[in-house]
């Protein structure tokens, strides 16, 4: 599937920092730097706050990949995030403020420091690294935030035959998106004992993925969970010159695990389909995160914004969350290549008949060439008596030099 389509489906400016594979064919052949600079202006309105917020934040990523030879490589990367022109927004640091939230506090930190070995069918990586599994729902670097999420640990990947990939991760700590300088140590990093199993099998049509995530969290025990699931993805051209049909069907079950004080067994599913041509396609589907009134499906280590609306107006309620969505997306030439999307989302609890609101998200991403891009996004959430109405607009300018290793 074309890159523009994936980026549009995941939410513009989604995470592009990490992937599953780490094999020789995907490792850069020469040592090279990676530079990314991103400025974001956020205009924030909430009926629950007396004043409109204005968040001007900037991020600088500097990385260098060393191709040592004989399959060995190493990568180091740091991030510096600034709050510019005064903090007319709530950055999540418990500062009393009349403004809405944009959770991007200033910070400086090391986000990658790893050594990697990759052979023809085997790879191992140890150190601080990004983890992005599948669409990022359960494990992600959370690329929308200015401070990215990384994990300390190791991973092993093996391709026993063509079309099959088996991966195992052990993770000992998660370094969260509040940044390395956040005042609350228990919020900026969590101590883990996590074992992630992930298996992919190519099929004649599409790909089947099975996973088991076993996470003990010694800092926040409520986030100790076991998640078992299956995922089927693919894309096919219908007819010789027909539209492209792409799909994702995922089912999972999540349980309390290890030191979690709760007792639960909750279901999860995602049905996501896109059909059309490059200039115009339709996307629709449903995501359901189960809840029992005391607990809901836990996605504490994954992405949120790409799934439950760009405004991120509410947390997943203990009664669970059902989201149905439909939208249009495509590509257009505005003097430079551009992609766009419009998505309508409807939210309900899994238990009960209450309305959790509706949201409309609109985005336009323009590739300016030579590593530069500009991104316009707008989200409008209407609460329907659940919380308050919120509207947010973002203007993002980004420059990239080089590519980060996968």
Please give the structural blueprint:
Blueprint: H1 3-10, E1 32-46, E2 53-69, E3 72-88, E4 107-118, E5 122-129, E6 150-158, E7 164-175, H2 185-188, E8 189-202, E9 207-217, E10 225-237, E11 244-256, E12 265-276, E13 281-289, E14 321-333, E15 337-348, E16 357-369, E17 372-382, E18 390-401
Antiparallel strand pairs: 1-2, 1-18, 2-3, 3-4, 4-5, 5-6, 6-7, 7-8, 8-9, 9-10, 10-11, 11-12, 12-13, 13-14, 14-15, 15-16, 16-17, 17-18
Description of the structure:
- This protein has two helices and 18 strands.
- Mean pLDDT is 92; it is low at 1-25.
- The protein has helices at 3-10, 185-188, and strands at 32-46, 53-69, 72-88, 107-118, 122-129, 150-158, 164-175, 189-202, 207-217, 225-237, 244-256, 265-276, 281-289, 321-333, 337-348, 357-369, 372-382, 390-401.
- It has a single domain, classed as Beta Barrel (Porin), CATH 2.40.160.
- The radius of gyration is 21 Å and the shape is globular.
- With 406 residues, the protein is mainly β.
- A hairpin with an 8-residue loop joins strand 11 (244-256) and strand 12 (265-276).
């Amino acid at each position: 599937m074309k890159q523009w389509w994936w980026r549009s489906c995941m939410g513009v400016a989604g995470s592009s920092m990490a992937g599953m594979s780490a094999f020789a064919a995907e490792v850069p052949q020469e040592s090279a730097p990676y530079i990314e600079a991103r400025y974001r202006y956020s205009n924030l309105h909430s009926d629950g706050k007396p004043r409109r917020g204005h968040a001007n934040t900037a991020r600088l990523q500097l990385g260098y990949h060393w191709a040592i030879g004989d399959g060995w490589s190493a990568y180091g990367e740091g991030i510096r995030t600034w709050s510019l022109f005064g903090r007319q927004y709530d950055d999540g640091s418990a500062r009393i403020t009349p403004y809405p939230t944009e959770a991007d506090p200033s910070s400086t930190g090391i986000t990658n420091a790893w050594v990697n070995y990759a052979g023809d069918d085997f790879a191992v990586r140890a150190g601080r690294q990004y983890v992005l599994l599948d669409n990022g729902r359960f494990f992600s670097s959370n690329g929308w935030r200015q401070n990215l999420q990384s994990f300390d640990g190791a991973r092993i990947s093996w391709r026993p035959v063509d079309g099959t990939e088996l991966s195992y991760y052990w993770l000992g700590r998660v370094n969260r998106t509040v940044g390395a300088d956040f005042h609350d140590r228990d919020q900026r990093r969590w101590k883990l004992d996590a074992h992630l199993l992930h298996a992919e099998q190519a099929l004649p049509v599409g790909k089947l993925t099975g996973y088991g995530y076993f996470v003990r969290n010694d800092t926040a025990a409520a986030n100790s969970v076991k998640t078992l699931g299956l995922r089927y993805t693919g894309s096919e051209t219908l007819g010789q010159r027909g539209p492209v049909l792409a799909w994702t069907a995922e089912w999972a079950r999540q349980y309390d695990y290890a030191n979690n004080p709760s007792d639960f067994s909750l279901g999860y599913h995602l049905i996501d389909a896109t059909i059309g041509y490059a200039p115009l396609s339709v996307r629709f589907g449903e995501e359901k995160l189960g809840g029992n009134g005391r607990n809901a499906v836990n996605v504490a280590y994954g992405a949120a914004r790409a799934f439950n609306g760009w405004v991120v107006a509410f947390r997943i309620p203990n009664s669970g969350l059902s989201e149905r969505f439909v939208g249009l997306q495509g590509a257009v030439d505005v003097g430079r290549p551009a992609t766009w999307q419009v998505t309508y989302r409807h939210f309900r609890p899994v238990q009960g008949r209450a309305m959790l609101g509706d949201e409309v998200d609109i985005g336009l991403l323009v590739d300016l060439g030579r590593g530069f891009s500009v991104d316009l996004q707008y989200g409008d959430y209407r609460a329907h008596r659940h919380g308050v109405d919120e509207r947010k607009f973002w203007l993002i300018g980004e420059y990239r030099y080089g590519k980060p290793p996968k």
